[in-house]
Design brief:
It is built from 14 helices and 14 strands. With 475 residues, it is an alpha+beta fold. The protein starts with 16 loop residues before the first strand and ends with a helix. It binds adenosine-5'-diphosphate (ADP). Adenosine-5'-diphosphate (ADP) binds next to α6, α7 and α8.
Length: 475
Amino acid sequence: MTPGENDLFPIDNALEMILAFDQKGVISYANDAAKKKLEYKDDLCGRHIKDVFPNTFQSTEDGFASEYVFGNEPQNLVAYRRNLTCFPVEAKIVNSTSAVGTYICMANDILEKEFLSREIEQVRQEAQQALKVKSEFVANVTHELRTPVNGILGNVKELLDDVEGMEARTVKSLRLIERCCGDMHKIINNVLDFSKLEAGKFTLEPRRFHFRNMLDYVKAKHISKITEKGLGFFMTVSPQIPEYVIGDELRIGQILDNFLSNALKFTAVGKITLEVLRTARVNDKVELFFMVSDSGIGIDKADKDKLFQSFSQVDASISRKYGGTGLGLNICKQLVELMGGRVEVESEKNKGSTFSFSIWVGISEEDSEALPQQGEVKTTFTTAAMEEEEERFANIRKYGTPENKDNLKKNLSKLILCVEMENWEKAEMFMETIRQLTEEAPQEVKRAVLRLKMAIQKENYDKVTAGYAELNDIL
Ligand code: ADP
């Protein structure tokens, strides 16, 4: 049945415009929405469909012509009002199944939608532009900041080269300035890298380098602090890794630096290990897999997702206690991704963390010949000496074992030395180690540890020496 003007159809009140027209193109039905939108009254019926869609339909002698493909796929058309103004619609025109020779057109006004999506696109572009301007501004400012900080750092270092005759207080202040400038330098570099990565202006600089030398250099940067803290450090490098590889040496070193600094920062007792494997080879590229593990404070399952977000630290108390900007991991992730790899983390609260990542590096033709021709290789190797060391470190945490006692003594004497030198920050670091070494100790010991800890936090020299003596006696 063809919908007629007098029939009461539920489509009369439909929100979308509905029109019916015959083979001659004459409109035989228009619902309320169509009349209202097209600004007709009842006189819409009897008009030719070309009056509504002049760009889509033309009138011919025997009816109408159109390139419109009738069917269920909605198409974008332009509908004209009675006053010849127009608006975009999303329309579907189908052959009526119940009334042969009748076409039904269903159309929705998409002016608002188009307007909104144009607005959204504009806002998106503006936001992108603002982000770009911000990143460029941050990059410029940090670049400018680097120069004065480097200037101060260079001069302080020069002064510290010859401290003879200087007052102890002056030397102490100079060392503090040196440390602060060093920290500032690191933060500036991080912000600079971050803003370049964000602005998509970061480019890697790959070249051929000696892989093991790079690792030794990274290790040398951290080893003194690691041993000073009384931690063990193990590094294993698979012999299947070529001697020379092609990659961005500086950036690979930076990623490792960051993971090792974090491992050091968040580990008071135990060990840090660095393992490097070759996991795949495709033509002149090899995949390297790095794993940095520690036995430190670990990360809660719930906090793991936050880890690689920029400026994110697991919780505020951690940033207060350990410092940092929360940019390091995000930069590492982005750098690793630029090198064709990904970062993973496995961690358990109070048990330690393992950060691993893979990257692809190149091998030159000459180095390639010397390389064994396997495809996939994944080996890890532990020597007997390492197993022994592992056991020794497992014992350190167990209160009362010779390893634990020995470690406690060492940390106590380092602590008191720092107190004598008024280096309270380092004293706090050793105190944290002592606290962890005595976690399983009897209450009497734990109470003495707590008293000493509080005295250190208050930087009260007399109470610290008394607390130290008390703890030394009990132990
Ligand atoms: P930051 O420069 O502040 O250390 P990162 O991006 O390197 O920033 O690290 C972000 C946060 O991730 C740290 O503040 C810490 O909460 C957590 N984290 C990173 N590495 C470790 C780790 N080895 N052990 C425990 N927590 C870690």
